[in-house]
Structure formats: C-alpha cells, structure tokens
Amino acid sequence: MPTLRAALPDDWNRIARLLGDSGLPIEDLSADALDDFLVAENGSQLIGLIGLQRYDKVGLLRSLVVSRDACGIGIGARLVGALESAALMAGVAELWLLTIDAEAFFQKFDIVDRSAAPECIRATAEFSDLCPGDAYLMKKSLSVLSPI
Length: 148
Ligand SMILES: CC(C)(COP(=O)(O)OP(=O)(O)OC[C@H]1O[C@@H](n2cnc3c(N)ncnc32)[C@H](O)[C@@H]1OP(=O)(O)O)[C@@H](O)C(=O)NCCC(=O)NCCS
Prior knowledge:
The protein has a single domain (3-141), classed as 3-Layer(aba) Sandwich (Aminopeptidase), CATH 3.40.630. The chain is globular, with a radius of gyration of 14 Å. The two termini are 20 Å apart. It is α+β, with helices and mostly antiparallel strands. 24% of the residues lie in helices and 30% in strands. It contains four helices and seven strands, in the order βαβββαββααβ. Strands 1-2-3-4-5-7-6 form a seven-stranded mixed sheet, sandwiched between helices. The structure holds coenzyme A (COA). Coenzyme A (COA) binds next to β4, α2 and β5.
C-alpha cells in the first residue's frame, strides 16, 4: 500500500520527472517551493504528487499526477482527500483547479466560468500563462469534507 507524506526538497528530481512525463507545468516550481505538496511513495518509488498554493482562504490544487503504472487503484483520490484535509486545517475554504482533460475525475468540483475566478487565482502562473485558455476551471467548497 503506497504511503503519503509531505514532499521534501530532495524529492525534486523525481517530482520533476513525474510532472514532465505527464506534461503538467513545472516552470513555476522548484525544490524549495514544495511546502504544501504531498507525494505518494511505494518503497523507494515516487508514484504520485499533488500540490496546494494558498492565498488565505482560497487555494489552488495543482500538479496532481499518478505514474501510469500505478493508476486506477485509488492513489489519485487519496492524494486529493489528503490535500483537502490539509487545506481545511490551514483555513482554506474554497479550492480551485485547472485541468485540460481530467474534469470528470473531479466529481465533487463544479466547472465554473473563468470570469468567476478570484484575483489571487487569476494571478497564478497556471491560470495566466501555463494552462491553455480552454482548460477547465473548477471549484469546490471545503466547508464539508467529502471525497473527490
Ligand atoms: C487523474 C489522475 C491523477 C487519476 O489518478 P488515479 O490514481 O488513477 O485515480 P484513482 O485511482 O483514485 O481513480 C481512478 C478513477 O478515476 C478515473 N479517472 C482517472 N483519470 C481520469 C481522467 N483524466 N478523466 C476522468 N476520469 C479519470 C478512472 O477512470 C477511475 O474511475 P473508476 O474508479 O470509476 O474506474 C491520473 O490519471 C493522472 O495522473 N492523470 C494525468 C495528469 C492529470 O490529468 N492530472 C490532473 C491535472 S489537475
């Protein structure tokens, strides 16, 4: 059973490889900017990642990826659940995310128009630059905890 833990600077090379393999943005990340990131590990293998960018009560869920050979066994859902718990504990009340084609995975999130995004989300590199303009913008209230 894979374990989840906080990401560490030493994980950076493996994180960069995981993100690169799945085509997710890496340009605005670095080894010393992983404070609110979690990894999934199977022995010495890093097989999953998720990150949170916090702006007071608003959070951006980003960089969710599970390595192809570990997909479909619930690791993605566990990473989202763990991130939501951590975000709620940190005072985040609403979670936002951008996705090109995984919108159906985030069943408890609503698709919202880009014009509804708060300024702190608009100012992120993911929103303004790194994700294509037709990526889905999705939102979920964290006042009640529920799985993805
Ligand atoms: C999306 C992703 C993280 C899911 O991880 P996972 O560990 O396979 O997810 P889980 O095992 O918890 O859940 C699997 C379920 O999600 C569904 N699912 C997985 N990827 C999906 C996608 N892109 N779109 C819709 N549904 C998806 C599966 O069909 C499966 O459904 P089922 O349980 O009804 O059979 C993984 O497919 C991935 O890394 N994708 C590439 C990167 C990406 O798109 N990230 C999201 C950007 S925010």
